[in-house]
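Hi P.,

Sorry for the delay on this. The queue was packed all week, but I finally got your sequence through. Input first:
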Amino acid sequence: MSFRFSVKRAVAAAAISLGLGFAAAPALAVGPAVILVVDTQGVFAQSKAGQSIRSQYEEQAKKIMAEGKKTDDALQADAKKLSDERALLSQDDLQKRMQGLQKRNVEFQQSMQIKQHGLQLGVQRAEAQVEAALRPIFAEIMKEKGGTILLDQAVVLAGGADLDISAEVLKRLNEKLSKVDVKPLTKEEIEAAQKAANGQ
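Then the structure:
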């Protein structure tokens, strides 16, 4: 899984003109815009919370893969055993055992997909907590510096080093949030979330 912190929810992909929970600048504001820049991807990657999310994801993903390999090895062994014994079995017995093996394989694949999807959704929920912690930090720093526009570093083609508030954002985020638990969603939670998304 490639970690791409959702900057679109924390900072709009283009410019944000005081739209993160504090008063918007008047349409006819006097004076030049004060632009600030933040590297949200870098802040997330370097933050204690971001690193805790990554380490938990990697640990849980390894566990899922290990469990999957164990089940897959068992299925492969049973398939080989069935192949070795097929000459000794009646057509009906062979058919039943083949169908049983196929059913177990399908169930295994579905189980793996659910576990992997549940982990991804768990990571997204954890990242959302980081985003929620970042919003007031952005607001505080912009207010302190008199900023009117906040840009993500990803959309700045050149310059902006003297306007970069990433170090201060990182410092405050670490003070506010040092760890976020990654809790994979269960099959029931995934189904409930899908129903809610579909308005059912």
